[in-house]
Amino acid sequence: MLRLLVFFFLTLSCLAPLAVYAAGAKAGSGVRLLVHEGRGGTTMDVRNNLDVPITAVLVFSRTVNVQGVGKRPLRKTVPARSQVRVATLRKRQAGYPLMYQHAFSYAMQFSPNPGKSGAIGGHAYALPWQGGPFRITQGAGGDFSHNTPKGRYAVDIGMPVGTPIVAAREGTVVDIRNDQGGARPDPSGNFVRIRHRDGTESAYLHLQKGSVVVRPGQKVGTGTLLARSGSTGRSTGPHLHFVVQKSDGQSLVSIPFRFSRPVESLPNFAMGGD
């Protein structure tokens, strides 16, 4: 039976200012578009395992033998840790296939008012690079690597090797690595770690060998040049891995944070469905 290839796009969309979150549940289980196909049609649910609500968006095109959806985007609010049906596609004529393309994206609902649902407090981090605009290649809760306590709220931003990396917040440099040329020995590659006055730390990973220009104990301000971007450590291509962490008594754990400005988004194909 003829079917049109269905494209799945999971985009980490952003609101201004951008709020970066991830799943607090199982690894890689942040947001999922669940597609259920039956004899009479197809249903699409969005499962949100994040700790904040999202706005889910479905856009359909090239629909053939389809009723139940139009050309306008479908938008649904999906509360934190819940599942909502976003679309139901039914056949206009039984015995013929449904044919369509669709694109799926979502945006975390951010409110600057800490008293409102979906709000996140704390410092708004400046963008930790110069130049661009660049794109997010793996968001918080990503299936590839952002699925451990240390990194589940991290974000990867693709950028050319040699892009200036700057401090996203003032603080004191507590650790660096500057001598790694490839994937080993440290999965983080070359890095800079900065401790802030509230005890949290920001880390900048996969930096270019020999590019780090700060030293442990040095105080830096927002925008201070730290290093140049690279692709050292466990990296599939040139990018910056940025994460904010705090101590849980035994180790550092990743925590939600927000940027003070929007970051452009890129489809994230590390997505699953039923």
UniProtKB/TrEMBL annotation:
Keyword Signal attributed: yes
Show the InterPro entries listed in the entry: Cell_wall_metabolism_enzyme, Dup_hybrid_motif, M23ase_b-sheet_dom
Pfam families in UniProt: Peptidase_M23
Q: Is Signal given among the entry's keywords? A: yes
Question: Where is the M23ase beta-sheet core domain positioned along the sequence?
Answer: 153-247
Source taxon at top rank? Bacteria
Keywords on record? Signal
- The residues forming the signal peptide are 1-22
Q: Would you tell me the protein name for this molecule?
A: M23 family metallopeptidase
* Annotated organism of origin: Stutzerimonas azotifigens
